[in-house]
## 1
Amino acid sequence: MRSREPHRSILVGQPLVRFGFGTLIYLCQSSACVPIEESHSNDSVQSTSEFGLVRLSPGFQPDPWVVSGRAGGPVQGSLVHASCPGWRSRRPGHTLRVTDRIQRLRILVRALRDSTLIVQNPNGSLRCNDDAEDRNPIIDGAFEAGTYRVWVGTYSETKTLSYRLGFSELEGVSARDLR
């Protein structure tokens, strides 16, 4: 049984190496590799995520900006790094494109069951969170201009979970506000 103690958001280690082999893209750290998505050489960034592209710049409206998706999949988050729990899809659920540095951006998940959040920064490093607000993960911090990949995970390898994913510059926004 997993501990109910909240996890903190972390920035995980060194950037990971990303390479393609056949139709899969892999992330590797040290000698361990994990497939993260299928490659489609002619596809745009938007089509390489399951639920689309979110473009944000400072002062975006509405705040929170809310999108939906389904969490879960066959890839264990801890295979990428031990501090990234849960099961996720190979392809990111969403791609986030930040056009200009956002001093403080909160990425929040609202789901009916326990969920996890992994954000891959443009340099390949990861931010992971679980249970920041009850059973909902939140990643909070500065986001430089660039393209980020976002996965929402579950604690079941075989069951998916509907979620609302919110982006906010406002400190008081919580997962309950994502409608």
## 2
Amino acid sequence: MNYHVSKKIGFIFIVILFALFAAGIRYYSKNKLEQDNSVQSNSRKFGTIEIIDPASLLVLINEVSVIDARLSGFHEGHISSSQPMNWTEWTEEKPSIINSVIGNPSRWGKVETNRQIEERLQNLGLSHEKLIVVVGSPSGWGEEGRIAWNLLFWGAQKVALLNGGFLAWKQMGYDVEYGEPSKIKEKGNFILSIENSRRATLEAVKQHLTSEAGPLFDSRTEQEFQGERLHGQRRGGRIPGAKLIPFENLYQSNGQYISALELQLLIGNHIKGTPIAYCTGGVRSALLALLIESRLGIKSKSYDGSLWEWSHDSNLPLE
């Protein structure tokens, strides 16, 4: 073998070694990136819900975001720096008289999941890792529960319900603003990360009927339970096997939420499986589900489509 041939073979050998080395680097980098992405996607913990009193909120007021979920009364008085958030503006289709004619009521209660949600939440100053306190009214329909449930479903890590709502805050003599909401000081960095384990779909409820997956709670009134319909509901009645837990019973006479013991007496002892709560459009049911979780430590689901969706299909049973 002459010198030139040996030199050529050596050059080819070096090229092959370099190619193998480069391939190894790419393989390592690819796997490292996949591992990093896996850690990032799995690092977020299951969001938590708690109940906070006005005095505790006052201490934290500069460290939290406050959302006012009331459907009316915001301009007549609200907690300083709070932002209004109407649950009807965060569904697949807004409930309205017009939409009852030209729209689809089965979509009225179903929460939005599109990517625009992320920017809208950021524009409210919300961040998924910062505590968000939701304010409601005991005289409402549990709207604070629905907004809090929405936020947890979208990926919020820490959410709290203000015990007693805005009225309790006002009665304590704490600062109240009037008129339009304050301008957001800084845009939030909320990252949308859907937590499907909080949501019961129509198919999940159907399966619930033929299994022992957990109890089914109806959070409407006694009259609705017996067949009275609300606007947009195609058929009256209740889903077979449901137990009535009237949402008005979730509040004490002073407007605060009932205690753990009182709630336990309402839903019963020895709960097996994952409870599913429903109502007409997933508002009252969301409050019930979150109170069961915060008071009793039992993870529960809310059927956001509820009877607006269920009653729309004549093939689905109602008692």
## 3
Amino acid sequence: MTMSGARETDQIGAGLGRSMLIAYLLLFALLGAVAALPRLTAHPAAARNTPAGLAAEPSPNPSALAALAADRSQTTVTAASDGPVGWLTIPALQLADIAIYDRGLDAQRRMQIAPGLAVTHYSFSSPLGGPANAVLYGHDDIEGGVFGKLKQLKPGDTITVRLPSGTTQQYTVTGQRLVPPTAISILDPTPTATLTLFSCWPLYVDNQRIVVTAVPTA
């Protein structure tokens, strides 16, 4: 065999070696993707019920409020035909018998919010008066800003939830904290009865969420 023939043979062998290596790598990648598939699809319902972030559409600055009011149908979920699931009273915030409506998630997993001067109960959280974490939220600086003063609540303040049955449950505030809009862990179930309230903060900026927690009054 000539020198040139030997070089050609070596080049062909090297090319085949590279091709086989690439084929093996692709095979391993495919097997890894198939192995991961059950883990990705194990809990489709949980994924559907997990919000992309803590609700509350971005609030405009005061100069934009008039324009927003003229176009509410494009930015706020319309009221459901069903009635309130409860009424909220917070004496420290001068809130009395504010209607509470159930809302879930839209197709983009954004938390829906009841329009107007109303409070929203996250329907995937514990029922009002239930044994775990019942989550309530509302606007801070538009549509009446029902939770605009939420940060003023302090430990010891009282919150009352009245149900359609006439039953009332009183809660005592235990604390508050600021979290980013991605802190969806505040929606997680709790081992005991808890009331979690949150809203955007600060006014007209809304890049954080003020979270207030309360427990049934002993």
